[in-house]
Write a structure and sequence with these properties.
The protein has 164 residues and is of the alpha+beta class. Helix content is 20%, strand content 43%. The strands form four sheets. It has a five-stranded antiparallel beta sheet with strand order 1-2-13-4-11. The chain has a three-stranded antiparallel beta sheet with strand order 3-8-7, with no helix packed on it. Strand 1 and strand 2 form a beta hairpin. The N terminus is likely disordered.
Amino acid sequence: MKRLTRNVWSVAGGLLLSFGLMKGAMPQSMKSDHWSGADLLARAKHLQELAAGKGSASETLEEYPHHHTMLAFRNRTGGAEVHQNFADVFFIVDGHTTLVTGGEVLDPKTTGPGETLGASVRGGSKQALNPGDVVHIPAGMPHQMILEDGATVTYFVVKVEETR
């Protein structure tokens, strides 16, 4: 009897797959995305031009149901940021920066739903980031990138939606 039940479920599953009734099960509807380090650096040249007067520039590479990927370039220290609904994962592609996480945002201003920008972070932890480093910043955690004069940083970002 167990063998018959297992066979019935195997046939039923096969039919569902054949007819495309299982959502997301068809490999033809899925794709993967790949960016080599060289690809990212080539794309960053455009961002460097855009950042010339502002200090930073970024572009969204791809959007997915619960996260999106970006490429960012910075040539000077940025302000403090807090994203209530998104965690940030930074992959340093080129350059160097100091990341401050935690602490308190000074002079906070709400810039959109769940988004806060401020002048700086006070009392956070500092960590040096170099090419190849990866850092995860949970949703709701203040953070700020600090660059030395003349320094630049190019980084790949994964913004992951977090529901609480």
